Amino acid sequence: MFIETNMLYYRAMRHARLLLPGAAALFFIASTMPSSALAGLNPDSRVQMGLDAREDVQETANDADDDDREWRRSRSLGGEAEDDLTIPILIGVEVNDLVDTWGDARSNGRTHEGIDIMAPRGSLIVSPTNAVVAKIGTYGLGGKYVYTNNPGGERFYFAHLDGYADGLREGQRLNRGDLIGYVGNTGNAAGGPTHLHFTIYKRGAHNPYPRLTRTFNTRDRVEALSSQLTMVENAPDRLALAQTYVSRYGNVFREAQADRVRLPALVTLLMDSSTVRVATGRTSGTVSPHFTRDLELGDTGSDVTVLQEFLITTATGDAALSLQRTGATGYFGPLTERALAEYQHAADISPAIGYLGPLTRAHIQTG
Ligand SMILES: [Zn+2]
Prior knowledge:
By secondary structure, the chain is α+β, with helices and mostly antiparallel strands. The protein has two domains: 2-210, Distorted Sandwich (Glucose Permease (Domain IIA)), CATH 2.70.70.10; 219-366, no CATH class. It has 13 helices and eleven strands. The chain has helices at 2-18, 23-32, 35-38, 43-49, 54-67, 69-75, 218-231, 235-258, 265-279, 302-314, 318-326, 334-346, 358-366; strands at residues 85-86, 115-118, 124-126, 131-139, 143-150, 154-164, 173-174, 179-183, 195-201, 205-206, 212-214. Strand 9 and strand 10 form a beta hairpin. The longest helix is centred in the last third of the chain and has 24 residues, at 235-258. The chain starts with a helix and ends with a helix. The model is unreliable at 1-68 and 275-289 (pLDDT under 50). Residues 50, 52, 112, 114, 116, 197 line the site of zinc ion. Zinc ion (ZN) binds at residues 50, 52, 112, 114, 116, 197.
């Protein structure tokens, strides 16, 4: 009883703040969307955009109830439902950005069963609780969607995804903060602004809005981004992803640095190099990974760690495999020298003697 009263209070407070007619939402969208997306932002298209996936939900939920063994098995996911949920967008959406769109009118006399969380394309959708992936699919209304089973017998529905997390599969266990997919506008959201449609099911649909009272903190955010980087085995892809993260989430990393949260070495190096670029007036918005100095036997530093990680993930020979067992230490020892020489030999860089000079640096940067 106490909790419910509390929630109503929160809800009322948020309504009060959002009564300025949609101003907060418009500002949020305007500040994060490409201008082409703004063209669709009028009351009519908002209704179209927000058409929910109610039929889809009913259909697949029944399927799953009857046939899906994973769903049954994971239905026992223990614990109580969490009253206060974390907004399932890792970065970029604050509690005050949310607008309660539950019950809004939709086409064919339907009402909206869920909340539409506005976010730029590609924003990271993560699990707000520990969970199990119950169902992954595509449907006309919901587009690319994912259902998860959550504590307390609840089931969460994420729709209109641009894409799924790499390797996401039904039955997979998720920790709080693990990636589910990317914000998009698939299904009947096509052509409208990108957003996440989110609904909670337990014997019917429930409005998530009053419960979305928290966001992931800086440490959670950095941890989630780091684990995404770790999962990319191919070195050039990993550099490219780190590059994207640094240009997109630089503020999160800077906050983390201020809070003394440890950052992945690759991110630290890229941040340093982006600072250099900004300082020299090259603010093109892209950050290119580069070593700011030559490296050789005896050097130490975070750039040595990055080089070692690169050699380990590229793994061109025996020395790289030995280095993998030792791990990236930040000290340029004989093993690093041999691994670098192997890389140079494989890449046809001469002399292949394990000295990181301009030629090898350029080669690593361009993949
Ligand atoms: Zn919706």
